[in-house]
Write a structure and sequence with these properties.
Helices cover about 60% and strands about 10% of the residues. The protein has 7 helices and 4 strands, in the order βααβααβααβα. The longest helix is centred in the middle third of the chain and has 16 residues, at about 70-85. The radius of gyration is 15 Å and the shape is globular.
Length: about 130
């Protein structure tokens, strides 16, 4: 199972020749191994302007395995955020929450967002 981040989904849906196309299709076709969480679902859907595309995308993403956050996720995310801040690194809180969830669930994160590359240097986060 691999958590697929917002950056990958946006590029996948907007560009038919996406650099992520082959890998993401492989994850989906390989026993639906592409996983999504609430923050990623929200980020992808909130950026869609027209209702038809919103409904189609919501339907497609709703078929994916879904993992929930819990209190431990948020405690870990706050610790990660504070650890990074002490090193002079400021990250969007949603990114530290997604990273904490990936670490908690021991799943790699498939992303194109450089924030997560920084987080991997200071945590147990693994990238796909």
């Amino acid at each position: 199972m691999v958590i697929v981040d917002t950056s990958v989904w946006i590029d996948f849906f907007q560009n038919f020749d996406s650099v992520y196309q082959e890998k993401l299709e492989g994850l989906i076709k390989d026993n639906n191994r592409a996983v999504i969480c609430g923050a990623i679902l929200q980020e992808v859907l909130q950026g869609i302007k027209d209702n038809k595309s919103y409904e189609i995308t919501k339907q497609r993403l709703s078929r994916l395995p879904f993992i929930d956050t819990n209190k431990e996720t948020y405690l870990s995310a706050s610790f990660l955020y504070r650890t990074l801040r002490r090193k002079g690194i400021t990250m969007p809180p949603v990114d530290t929450t997604i990273a904490a969830l990936a670490i908690q669930k021991q799943m790699p994160l498939f992303t194109g967002d450089n924030h997560f590359r920084t987080i991997t240097r200071h945590s147990e986060l693994k990238l796909y």
